[in-house]
Each structure stands twice: as C-alpha cells, then as structure tokens.
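dude i think i finally got it to work??
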Amino acid sequence: MGPLKGLRVIELAGIGPTPFGAMMLADMGAEVITIERAAGIPGLRPQDATLRNRRSIVVNLKKPEGVELVLKLCESADALIEGFRPGVAERLGLGPEAVQARNPKLVYARMTGWGQTGPLAQTVGHDINYIAVTGALEKMGRDAGRPVPPLNLVGDFGGGGLFMAYGVVCALLEAQKSGKGQVVDAAIVDGAATLMAYLYAYEKNPFFMPYKNRGSHLFGGSNHFYNTFECADGKFVSVGALEAHFYLDFIEHLGVDKAEFEQQWLGSPEQDISKIPALEAKVIAVFKTKTRDEWVKVFEGSNACFAPVLDIQEAAQYPHNVERKSFIEVDGLLQHAPAPRFSRSEPATPVAPRVAGEDTNAVLGDFGYDAASIASLREAGVVAG
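look at this
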C-alpha cells in the first residue's frame, strides 16, 4: 500500500494541473473522491492517466442539496482540492470558510495559474502565459528568435499540479501537529518560478554569464556538448557532456579531432566560445554518418552522458525502463508507473479512470446514505451516474 493510504481527498473536478495533482496523491495511496458535473470534464477519458485511481460521483452543485452533500463528504476528509478561478468556490458555497466550518482540520488546496491574489488573479490564461512571466519561457529556444514553449510540463504539471500535491502533503503534516487545516494557494507562476531557482543564479554568476541568454544558454541546446543531434536514419541522440572527464570521453567515442576539441569543455581555461558554432557543425556532420542505434552501440558503456532520444512506445521498451518497470499497462493502455519508489510502502497497481458518476451509489453508501435516500437524491436531480 502507498505511503498516503488512510488519507481521504475530495477533488472538485477540473482539468490539467488539478487532476494531475490528484493523481499524484491517489498514486501514493490516498483515497480520492472526484465530484463531477453531470457530463464529466471533456477530455481523453478513459485514456487520461491523470484521472486514474479515484472514485467518481456526479453531484449537481447548482442545487443546495448538492452543496450540502459535498460539505458532508468533507466532514471526514483530510483535504479538498479545486481548480476554479478565485471566488467561484465561494459562490458555490464550497469556499474554504464554509468547508472548514464543517471540518477545521481540513486542508483546502486551490490550484490556479495566477494565484488567489494579485492584479491578474481573475485573468484567464494557460501554461504558456504563466511561464512567460516567470522568466522561464524567455530562456527557451535555440536562437535569439522566438521563445519555444516546452510542452505544458513546466507550468501545468511541474509548477502546478506537482506543487499543489506537495503543498497538500506539507499542510497535512502541519495539521497533525496543530490540529488545524489551512488554505494552500498553489499558483503555477509561483511553482514555475521555483523551478527556475538554479537558472536565476546565471544572472549574476560570472562563470555563467556567457551562457545566460537564449541562443547561448548552456542548457538550451546552443553548443556541441549539451545538445541533440540527428543521425543518418533521421532519429536523434542526446549528449550532456558538461564536465571535463565526460566531455573527453564524448569526443573520444565520437571520433573527432582531439587536438581541436579537447580544450573546449565547459569551464576550460582555454575554452573559446566563439568556436562553438564551428565545433557544433562538425559534431552534427559526424552524427549523421551512423544511425541512432549504431551510435548507441558506439557509446555503450561510455561516460559520455549519451542517450538515444526515444518516442513514447520506444521508451516503454527501453531496457533500463523495462528493468525498473517505469511503464505499465492499465486496461491495455500504456501509462507511467507511480513515482517515486519507496522501500516499504509500495503503491498499488493503478486503476483505470472511472466513468463520470460510476461510483455515486457506492460512495454515498459509504457515507451512510441508504438506498431510499440515494433514490430520492437521484429523483431530485442532486446526484447522477
């Protein structure tokens, strides 16, 4: 059983970072009950792995009886998570004050892009907008042209859902000592800014000054020792040979002119960054002489910080991932295994996403509603599924 087994979380259904954070908690063993609208949230269901591992109940929150039902569920919950725009939960009658009046120890997590306060709190936006104002997006791209969005991993999931789940666990640990719940204001702008902690140091560190801008950024694919390269078959490999000993191993296995390359590692007293474009062009040409898998054999067992660039299906079959069981199948669909790993508290095998409202009767029964009461709620349009 996972390390969070015994915790109960009420999730007001949303999209993106909110269900991702709920998945992180559910994967670790928390009981997550999702309160959904009648039709469910549009999306990839049942293929969406972020919706796995919880029970689903459909409740009409436009009816006072529906709001009262959710408040009753919260009385025995440890946390509630929601991803509405600031003020929406309050207008529904399910804001922190109303919920914590029923359960003072409950942790109330709010997942938004801009946060609960500030001039943009009520402004619409998406991942790309949130990371744009943290300095993260400005750093991303191969050259001095347009910044390149990094999928929605940095904002929605890394800076958003993951930080929300972390905040919930932190607040739950504090509640064990204080006996009091609190509100967790999880804003993507705050989380994304935190993910930039190391890169902010570039702005003042003389060592990194030549690499701090987009187009010359050390981790932005603008050099010959930290980059991706196309091979003869159109597939790609990755190289991250930053340190001198890794760099020297890299150029040895690559087979380039040692005299030309050996002093051009990061931090070398003789490094000449003006030579980087020419060196990169030569490395590009060399990698195109063999297929990706041929280069994998060349670098096998090396210390060159080398790895093939794999698509999702290839990743699932990669020997290292197979050995660690990093990928699993849930109802025939490829998904990630719960992470991180624990020496004792092994999470259970994930359960596929439920149809919206599939567990309405079972959940209500667990909370003391008898068959007649459930039938009455259904007839009144308070619950469905």
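The first strand starts at residue 8 and ends at 12.
im so relieved honestly
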